[in-house]
Amino acid sequence: MRIAFYAPLKSPNHPVASGDRQMARMLVKALRSYGHNVEIVSELRGFLREPVQENFDALRTKAQQEIARLSELWARDGQPDLWFSYHPYYKAPDLIGPELASTFTIPYVTAEASYSNRRNSGLWAETQALVAQSVEQAALNICFTHRDRQGLAEAIPNAALGMLAPFIDTSAFLKTPPRSAPARLVTVAMMRPGDKLASYGMLAKALGLIGHLPWTLSVVGDGPAREDVTALFAGLPAERIEWLGAIEPAAVPEFLYGGGIYVWPGFGEAYGVAYLEAQAAGLPVVAQDIAGVPEVVRHGETGFLTPPGDVSAFAAAIERLLTREDERAALSQAARRFVLDERSLDTAATRLADLLAKVASS
């Protein structure tokens, strides 16, 4: 199929790395691996940081310009077979695809769309209504988590829903066996206000409770809250913490292979691609049983998920893996098998192809 791909939150070509950009790129790669002709049809970023009407009006004007441009292009060169919209939600609704799909009578598909009743106020109520309309129009809405599926099903009962488990490109992890550095804790996370800063804060508090153990922590990440993040760890021995800043995505696997346990509380995580990457490198995970994290970490099998907000429990889970080598090794092996066998790009591509084949034949 010829697929028009659009990510209103962040284009796969966006210069700033993030989990959203990474998943957009992997979806494109998965679609192309099955022979689909995938074109990223617009670079317009439909993200609204705050509910400001003036900004939204300007965005809608730009979206209409994109609709006009693509309409002219398709009328001249032929239309695609399907529109694929990645991650439309209240802060980044798809303002282009639904109208074009309707005008050119092609299937409209979303992946990782979400809906939250808590956001139905002010301008967000308007943008969520647009998301709901696009989800209802869609021939298929591909959900990555059961939480998102439930949210869509409750808000839009007529929505056509399918499941695709979060996945990563495991090719960088296949040839290198796990290495053992059990006392080296590692994490990969952006440094920004909100949930990320809250997770760093919880991690710092937890490490403060296990100072009697010989751990070190290596952190990959940077961002506008860097000074706030480092201040949270000021009470811990500086020689135990290594701040590596931002690194290229291609360097992340080698970094993870140098660790022993992946530690990240995960406030607000949709699911967390980094958890899958860590497990692919053979690192058991310590995280919270919160948001979408249980979709990518199996409690007691590939890591430990602790009660939300319970710093003592989080610290105890880290201590358990630091002091029980046999258990840590067993979880390490299970974590690697889980991702390589069940969450690879090849597995996801097959599932995605099956889902889209049903859309094409309907």
TrEMBL record:
<keyword id="KW-0808">Transferase</keyword>
<protein>
    <submittedName>
        <fullName>Glycosyltransferase family 4 protein</fullName>
    </submittedName>
</protein>
<dbReference type="Pfam" id="PF13692">
    <property type="entry name" value="Glyco_trans_1_4"/>
</dbReference>
<dbReference type="InterPro" id="IPR050194">
    <property type="entry name" value="Glycosyltransferase_grp1"/>
</dbReference>
<dbReference type="GO" id="GO:0016757">
    <property type="term" value="F:glycosyltransferase activity"/>
</dbReference>
